User: What shape does this take?
Amino acid sequence: MHELTINLHMHTTYSDGSGTHADLGRAALKTGVDVLLVTDHNILVQGANEYYRDGKKRVLVLACEEIHDQDRDPQKNHLLVFGVDRELAPLADNPQSLIDAVRAAGGICFIAHPVDPAMPAFGETDISWVNWDVTGFTGIELWNGFSELKSVAKGKWDAVAYAYFPEFIPHGPLPETLRLWDELIAKGQRVVAVGGSDAHAQHKSLGPLHKIIFPYEYHFSTINTHTLAPTPLTGDLIRDRKMVFDALASGHCFIGYDLPAPTRGFHFSAQSRDSTAIMGDEITPAGAVTLQAKLPSAAEIRLVKNGKVVKTAHSETLVHITDEPGAYRIEAYKRYLGKLRGWIFSNPVYVK
Assistant: This one.
């Protein structure tokens, strides 16, 4: 398997971002990201799928969409839609109909910022997902880089400080979102977790102060979704597009906060006497299963089963042997800028 670094959930001048697709592509080339999934609000931009190159470096930019009901007040229920070639925004007033249409069109979809608190100091309302009776969605955006600002900034001057020092914002997925994900999985649902930047690179002013909140290049260096694909990007746009979406749909991915230290190279698998599984896969063993996590550098590792921590290690590896069924996933934490911060969050291996 080949690891691809994906940054997803961002906006351009077609909605409320400040950059063009080309601007995003150039920023990504500086950070080592392989794929950008651009999700402008309620518009599927045609003709924007393209490779951007700088010497031997290459990044694939794919136009996708973030759909929500613009007539709803407040505007909740945002859905990230990937791999669909026609506009589905007219279905936004009925989340289940929208999800069904995505599936019928051969696409995948993720609930965006499931928990997204209000930020009264800037007139930002709570835009969490509320229709939890829906079925058929691929997964959720477990960690949203921009939404996290709302949870740490308690006022305007906090926001100003974070605008100049954004590296102090990320701590990990919101605890409420983690609990929600574990509850969904515990019910037997297959829910793929991804991390999104929600990048806008908006130009903001407060009195004499002016700042871009936050530059695209910063976002592409922080919260990424790393997928395991059969091959590197081939240069065939249609084939590569399908490969990226297939990897996400299968849950063969993990969320990596790449600013404290690179997360590339993380691996989590399960092995029994006669079979092997990676993140997103099921394994039905005869006897015990060996779960193994390998990290690119040492960290505090937590093995989580059905929402409960069952083993920890301070190392580059964690090994656990079990015969108990459950959804097993990895969380890893690193100390950075004086605090223990989330670093890696894997999708589960499902032991049946």
User: Anything to note?
Assistant: The chain has a mean pLDDT of 94.
